Amino acid sequence: MTASPKPSIGAVLTAPIVWLARAADMPLRAWQRLTGRGGMIAFFLIPNMAVFGIFVIVPLVINFFYSVTGGTALFLSDRPFVGAEHFDRLLTCTDHFNPTTCREDMFWTAVWNTSKFVVLQVSAMTVVAMITALILNSKIPGKAFWRAVFFFPVLLSPVVVGLIWKWILQRQGLLNFALYELDMTQVNWLTERSWAFAATIGVSVWAHVGFYALILLAGLQAIPGDLYEAAEMDGTKPGRVFWRITLPLLYPNLLVVIVLSLIRAVQVFDEVFVLTSGGPGTATLYLTQYIYEVGFASVLRNPGLASAAALMMGGVLVVLTLLQLGLTRWRDRK
Amino acid sequence: MGRIRIENLRKNFGAHEVLKNINLDIGEGELAVFVGPSGCGKSTLLRQISGLDQPTSGHIFIDDKDVTGVSAADRGLAMVFQSYALYPHMTVLQNLTFGLQNMKMAKVEIDRRVADAARMLEIEPLLSRRPGQLSGGQRQRVAIGRAIVRDPTAFLLDEPLSNLDAELRVSMRAELAALHARLAATMIYVTHDQVEAMTLADRIVVLRAGKIEQVAAPIDLFDKPANRFVAGFIGAPSMNFLTVEEATPILPTAPAGTALVGVRPQHLDPAETGLDVTVSLVESLGTETVIHATLATGTRILATLPGHVRAKVGEHLKLGGDPARMHFFDGQDQRIG
Ligand SMILES: Nc1ncnc2c1ncn2[C@@H]1O[C@H](COP(=O)(O)OP(=O)(O)OP(=O)(O)O)[C@@H](O)[C@H]1O
Ligand SMILES: [Mg+2]
Fold first, then answer.
1. Which domains does chain B have, with CATH numbers?
2. Structure confidence by residue, pLDDT tens digits, A230-286
3. Among B312, B331, B330, B223, residue whose Cα is nearest residue B267
4. Counting Cβ atoms within 10 Å, is residue A186 exposed (0-12), middle (13-18) or buried (19+)?
5. Contacts of A224 in chain B (CB under 8 A)
């Protein structure tokens, strides 16, 4: 098959790539001859490392310098060294459980809001993901369609998610319109404190549950079917099958879901920012938004204070990530 | 206790008819073995009996009670799966007790049953381990133990030994035979392995494409196969089939209506006169030699000769046989006589 009169479409389309690859071949060979194996490894790693360095490592280092310098100036050279002053300011409270007694009351409001959000959102997420996965794993018609439906929101940009739900939940939104049509009392979903808080949890669960349900679904499908048949022969009631067989075997996946959603919930920002902007009042003010406002949005912006808060939040995330790593290792060893 | 009767059982998967009108009566305490080629419906039939699957039509009776619509758990049967299906996150002890706890059985009774089964199967030292920490043979014992503690009316075993190596299979086979003798319980055993079927079974049920071809004791099956399929399926190497003309040198007169003559490889010996064959392959197994050969007509012939036989590829041999040990089949492949 050497002399084909008409080249296939595939060959035509890949021709430029082939040509490029050939062109790159020569210099790469020369490079390899010059630097050996190590040089090739470096060649393939450097682009990624450069991006990672510029957008992660460098900001991290700069962030640290911001946190120990004061003033509103943006250039580090214009910023006086203040030591741990920002940290001190963030952490000083008469009673840490009561933000109004703190020097940075907004910071502590955000901390407690975020804590409450994380606990409730992660619990809700785990339960909803579990139920979704169980339903998607059962013998329902149109399984593939439903899987796609539940996964779809994951693909949406958080801003779009925020806008969609704002459109549904705002005072003259879709939901209130429906309630009006049904002659039911309308609710100010986004401007009543507890409803707004609940809405941020509900919306972020809706937006990400497909991803976690998928992790659990993969776990469910990895459980051999004959275990369920053995359980059936053993006369096991459905509830007991779930608690004694499904759940323990799903435990590793469940752990992944909990830790990943935990890490993500701590950083909650974009959907909520679009949906409520932290309001009403400070009801849905979470840590990332606090950092954003202090650092960039407020009239008296204070990059040092924001950096200090960001570093502390980063510390929490490092602990959570190490926890996840530890759990994964422990699970793999078992 | 433990008689299982199957009446007019059919099972379809969509348009695909997997079991076609099965009728079968398995006696109390009997060890029945289902054999047949892969995909013939052995596992499907076992699953209908177990209650894990429901037949399209027909009835299943256990001790004269119609259990067709009864759930798997309430049929009082226990199943041993090919993959063992042990709960991987539970210890051996928990695996054994799980089903009994479902029945809300008293703890003393559970302890007694587990102790008995563990002693019988010699798995006492393993009780605190998990299935992942056991060898294949040990897992197999635990799987059998899980069936035994339930004290079932009958045991259903789907290729229980197929995941074990050859040596372990032989010893587990002997243990299963001993277990059957000791428990005196009805057992239905599915296997691919003829030797397992022949050595374990009280009766063998030969299935092909969803139909029962023959039900008989192992020796009867070997000596009097009901049709050409059973004749070819039981016995290793398989029976040789010759036309009446081809068989003339060793069979002067065939019974009326014979279309096909069957001769087992073990029943052919070198002789002065007989089938004129050309050797194409010689397999020396030590205790016996299997000769692959062809007739002038091209028909392949196998002969199993005792001991070492000096034969060369391409050599001409004459094979004789005893007409009394031959099998005759009519135009519909059914046995004559
Ligand atoms: N759930 C199912 N859906 C559709 N077809 C099935 C199903 N289970 C079995 N079959 C078909 O039924 C036929 C019999 O299958 P079965 O598993 O009973 O065979 P078997 O005799 O046990 O084979 P093996 O010796 O390979 O285990 C096969 O053709 C199989 O493809
Ligand atoms: Mg099978």
1. 4-233 (3.40.50.300), 240-329 (2.40.50.140)
2. 999 988 999 999 999 999 999 888 988 998 899 999 999 988 999 888 878 888 889
3. B223
4. middle
5. 83, 85
d(CA A321, CA A327): 10
Please report which residue ranges of B42-135 form alpha helices under DSSP H: 42-50, 92-102, 107-121
Say what the pLDDT of residue A129 is: 95
B44 lines ligand 1 (CB under 6 A): yes
Q: How far is B102 from chain A (nearest CA, A)?
A: 6
B303 in Cβ contact with B250 (< 8 Å): no
- Rounded to an integer, what distance in angstroms lies between the CA atom of residue A87 and that of residue B26? 82
The half-sphere exposure of A75 on its side-chain side, counting CA atoms within 13 A, is: 2
Nearest to B73 among A227, A233, A245 (CB): A233
pLDDT digits (tens, 9 = 90+) for B115-133: 999 998 889 999 999 999 9
**Stretch B142-170: mean pLDDT, rounded?**
90
| Cβ within 8 Å of residue B87, ≥6 positions away | A227, A230, A231, A245, B94, B95, B98, B131
Q: Which of B17, B43, B194 to mutate to test the pocket of ligand 1 (most atoms within 8 A of CB)?
A: B43
Is the ipTM beyond the 0.90 threshold? no
In angstroms, the separation between the Cα of residue B89 and the nearest Cα of chain A is 7
What is the token pair recorded at A131?
């139920």
Report CA-CA distances (Å) from A184 to A171, A179, A198, A208: 14, 5, 20, 30
Interface of A with B in 208-227 (CB under 8 A): 224, 226-227
Both structure tokens of A300: 């008296």
Closest CA to A104 of A293, A323, A276: A293
Burial code (b: 16+ CB inside 10 Å, e: under 16) for A192-208 equals eeebbbebbbbbbbbbb
All residues of chain A having their beta carbon less than 8 Å from the beta carbon of residue B96 are: none
* CA dist list (Å): A330 to A252, A323, A334, B130, B133: 10, 10, 6, 17, 17
Q: CATH code for A110-333? A: 1.10.3720.10
Task: Write down the pTM of the prediction.
Answer: 0.80
Chain A residues whose CB is inside 8 A of the B73 CB are 232-236
The CA-atom distances, in angstroms, between A320 and each of A125, A317, A323, B158 are 17, 5, 5, 47
Asked if A245 and B87 come within 8 Å (Cβ–Cβ), the reply is yes
Protein residue with its CA nearest to atom 7 in ligand 1: B13
Nearest CA to ligand 1 atom 18: B41
Domain ranges of chain A: 110-333
C-alpha–C-alpha distance, residues A25 and B222, integer Å: 70
Nearest to B123 by CA among B142, B99, B149: B142
- How many CB atoms lie under 10 A from the CB of residue A18? 10
- Packing angle of the helix pair A143-155, A105-137 (nearest 10 deg): 160
Mutant choice from B86, B96, B98, B150 vs A, greatest count of A C-beta within 10 A = B98
The β-bridge relationship of strands B77-80 and B154-158 is: parallel
SS3 content of chain B, % helix, strand, coil (to 5): 30, 35, 35
Of B310, B308, B317, B326, nearest to B253 (Cα)? B326
A235 and chain B in contact, CB less than 8 A: yes
CB within 8 Å of A83: residues ≥ 6 apart: A68
